[in-house]
Amino acid sequence: MRKRRIAILGSTGSIGRQALDVIAQHPDMFEVELLTANNSSELLIEQAVRFNANSVVIRNEDKYEEVSKALEPHYIKVFAGMQSICDLVAGDNIDIVLTAMVGFSGLESTVAAIRAGKTIALANKETLVAAGEIVMGLAEKHNAVILPVDSEHSAIFQCLQGSHGAEIEKIHLTASGGPFREWTREDIARASAAMALKHPKWTMGSKITIDSATMMNKGLEIIEAKWLFGVDASKINVVVHPQSIIHSMVEFADGAVIAQLGHPDMREPIQYALAYPERLSLSNRKIDFAELASLSFYAPDMEKFPAIGIAFDALEKGGNMPCIMNAANEAAVAAYLQDRIGFYDITGVVCECMAGVDFVGKPDLDAIFRTNEEAYAKASEIIGKISSVR
Ligand code: MG
């Protein structure tokens, strides 16, 4: 059998590194064709040599010389900049594109891969949040299959295998509740980024870990689920499940609920997407049910975590509203990580942007890029005002 030839966009991030771990466990099944990184040149060089990549792209053009010099003796081709990523993902030498970049910046290259009809292992949820309707439309037009990597969506996808097209009655999207689940609103209001970065269950990059603390991550995932599975927002239910053993569930018309379980480990959904529809071995921790003892579930506290309500709101308004929400959130999370604004300022900035940036009911891709810039600029302006009086 021919090996699956993989491109990893964002190979030096948390998802990218775990994907390479999966690939290293199955060298007979996968080979690495393309690796890309924004800035982490040293790790990119190391990965490219170790996995004998065909080519790499360093997005930051200032680092081209360094990467090029290091990889020349290994006959690995080196490119720089976003346009190179978009050109290379479309190459005939690539079967699967794992999109593991952070935030809106993943949209352009994901669209390029879709237009080339590649199979997409989608880890960049912001792509679907900002431009879900357009992205799913392009995927259909170009016969590009989109396989979810986000653990909840991988779980839902796994629960749907063998459902023979039965209609989904409800999606139960599980959430760990993040590090502040049991804190009071007053304490959360004073929480620093360092505290928010201590996620109890999942090891992830800093942007998604803050999104997890505000529960905006679940908000983004609601929108992601709507587009991936074509369900109405009214059929998506969020349930807090602190142990993160059930990764999400699907309920059918007869009340039967199918769940997918496992210890929290992103390598499992990554591998499922890369190997689909096959199941491969994985050196991870397996469930011992006697040891688990109990699993608990709660309704999310919408007062302490307004982001879930904000996301449902954005989804209901439609058009470019989820894009505005996403851009404002990216700007606000970056500012929070620099201690420029407080915890509840994140959702505050998002709400102000959603009220203040021009609404477009039927945006095309260009309008989405414009909206992202406008919303980011608006958010930066609001953040500047907040941080100047702090
Ligand atoms: Mg997730």
What does the secondary structure layout of this molecule look like, with pairings?
Layout: E1 4-9, H1 14-25, E2 30-37, H2 41-50, E3 55-58, H3 64-71, E4 77-80, H4 82-89, E5 96-99, H5 107-115, E6 119-122, H6 125-141, E7 146-148, H7 151-160, E8 168-175, H8 185-189, H9 193-196, H10 206-214, H11 216-229, E9 236-240, E10 246-252, E11 257-261, H12 267-275, H13 289-292, H14 307-317, H15 321-337, H16 343-356, H17 365-388
Parallel strand pairs: 1-2, 1-5, 2-3, 3-4, 5-6, 6-7, 8-9
Antiparallel strand pairs: 8-10, 10-11
Helix pairs in contact: 2-3, 4-5, 5-6, 6-11, 6-15, 10-15, 11-14, 15-16, 15-17, 16-17
Report the span from N to C terminus. 61 Å
Strand element count: 11
The run of helices and strands is: EHEHEHEHEHEHEHEHHHHEEEHHHHHH
Q: What is the average per-residue confidence, as pLDDT, rounded to a whole number?
A: 96
Share in β-strands: 5-15%
Within the largest sheet, what's the order of strands? Answer: 4-3-2-1-5-6-7
Rg, Å, rounded? 20 Å
Helical residues, percent: 40-55%
SSE class: alpha/beta
Mass-distribution shape = globular
* Tally of alpha and pi helices: 17
Give a brief rundown of this model.
The protein is an alpha/beta fold and 390 residues long. The chain has helices at 14-25, 41-50, 64-71, 82-89, 107-115, 125-141, 151-160, 185-189, 193-196, 206-214, 216-229, 267-275, 289-292, 307-317, 321-337, 343-356, 365-388, and strands at residues 4-9, 30-37, 55-58, 77-80, 96-99, 119-122, 146-148, 168-175, 236-240, 246-252, 257-261. The chain is built from 17 helices and 11 strands.
